[in-house]
Amino acid sequence: MMFWYAKSVIIGDFLEKGKTITGQYYSELLYCFDKKLEETRPHLMRKKVLLHQDDAPAHSSGVVAAKLHELHYEVQMLQLSLLLGVLHSSVAFVTSQ
């Protein structure tokens, strides 16, 4: 999974082969992303964080919903068919004012 904005990647995570992304794993990744964003790009913390994600089970779990609420992040659902050639679920990070 990659978390990024228009200028660069904030954090990337590559899961070991054969492992599954669970709600707990994704929730912890969101926490790490938030801390990395605060540490490396504090000016972006004042902007709205919008996550684009698909409807993978890990993305829609209760654990993740609680973490997104805690971090004040908004979610925009994407259809995999719109990802044009990307065969796996991904998360992209953008900010808007």
Largest sheet: number of strands, sense, barrel closure: 3 strands, mixed
Q: What is the number of independent domains?
A: 1
Number of separate strands: 5
N→C terminal distance:
24 Å
Rounded mean pLDDT is 77
Helix content: 25-40%
Protein name: Transposase
InterPro entries: RNaseH_sf, Transposase-MT_Hybrid, Transposase_1
GO molecular function, one term: nucleic acid binding
Pfam family, one: Transposase_1
Protein described:
The chain has 97 residues and is an alpha+beta fold. The protein is 29% helix and 25% strand. It has helices at residues 23-40, 62-71; strands at 2-5, 8-12, 48-53, 74-77, 92-96. Strands 4-3-5 form a 3-stranded mixed beta sheet, with no helix packed on it. It has a two-stranded antiparallel ribbon with strand order 1-2. A hairpin with a 2-residue loop joins β1 (2-5) and β2. Mean pLDDT is 77; it is low at 81-90 and 92-97.
Give a topology summary.
Layout: E1 2-5, E2 8-12, H1 23-40, E3 48-53, H2 62-71, E4 74-77, E5 92-96
Parallel strand pairs: 3-4
Antiparallel strand pairs: 1-2, 3-5
Note the main attributes of this structure.
disordered C terminus, nucleic acid binding, 97 residues, 3-stranded mixed beta sheet, globular, alpha+beta, 25% strand, 2 helices, two-stranded antiparallel ribbon
Concise description?
With 97 residues, this protein is of the alpha+beta class. The chain has helices at residues 23-40, 62-71; strands spanning 2-5, 8-12, 48-53, 74-77, 92-96. The strands form 2 sheets. The protein has a 3-stranded mixed beta sheet with strand order 4-3-5, with no helix packed on it. A two-stranded antiparallel sheet has the order 1-2.
